[in-house]
Amino acid sequence: MNKLNIISGLSTYHTMKECDYLKDNILMFDIPFSLIDLSTTKEMEVILPKDIYHKEIKYSFKESIDKLNSYIQNNKDIRIWTSHYEINSYLLMLYICNYLQNKDCNIYVVFSDEYNKDCYSPACMNAPELNKLKDLEHKLNKNEINSYSSKWLDIVNENSDIRLLEDNNVKSVSYDYLNDYILIKLKKLGSTKISKLTIEIMKDYHLIDLLVFYLIRRLINENKIIIVTKNEDNSFEDIISIK
Fold first, then answer.
1. Architecture of the domain whose range is 4-164
2. Does the model's pTM come out above 0.85?
3. Per-residue pLDDT tens over the stretch 73-125
4. Alpha helix ranges (H) inside 54-162
5. Fewer CB within 10 Å, N or C, the chain?
6. What fold, for 175-242?
């Protein structure tokens, strides 16, 4: 029986559906664990922050957990796809390890950067690469599962504004944490579009674009970044500069 493949995000899902040996057993979670209030995850629901998404969005993943529970009743092997660089898939791995910690199943993990250090996420791989990556899976022992589970609980207890990966470790930080980094990056770029600065930041931290955009807008509101030219149709295309 093929393993159940647990993945984060639609991009990986669409690519994996092209993989003959993977496409029939996929369970996708599309949860931005990096920026949500984690206090509601025990109830298998999250609220996407209004300041970032411009409206309050409630999202339940109970159906996905029900599918996971149903699967492990008869099939014991699951495989989680992640990397040491992409925060949301990594947090999903920690969450699943915590959820399955005391259940009768085998947990395998694959890290995209172990296939190629430039593959910061399974989402940036094509179907043949995903097929090869599956052969690099690690079966987690009980100590590893317990360790990942404990990390998840620590992160939930911290429940910071955002989470990111630095040096293979999850850091719980405030919205202000990247302020200096963003300002230095913008100073090097000179006057540029918000979209360009967003892309450059995402190369280093692999955060979702809406979160990066929000962090930049906060600096504009604090008068540390100025809008040089405003685009009335698309604020991502505003040209900005250091004040």
1. 3-Layer(aba) Sandwich (3.40)
2. yes
3. 988 999 999 999 999 999 999 999 999 999 999 999 999 999 999 999 999 99
4. 62-74, 87-100, 112-115, 127-133, 142-158
5. N
6. Arc Repressor Mutant, subunit A (1.10.10)
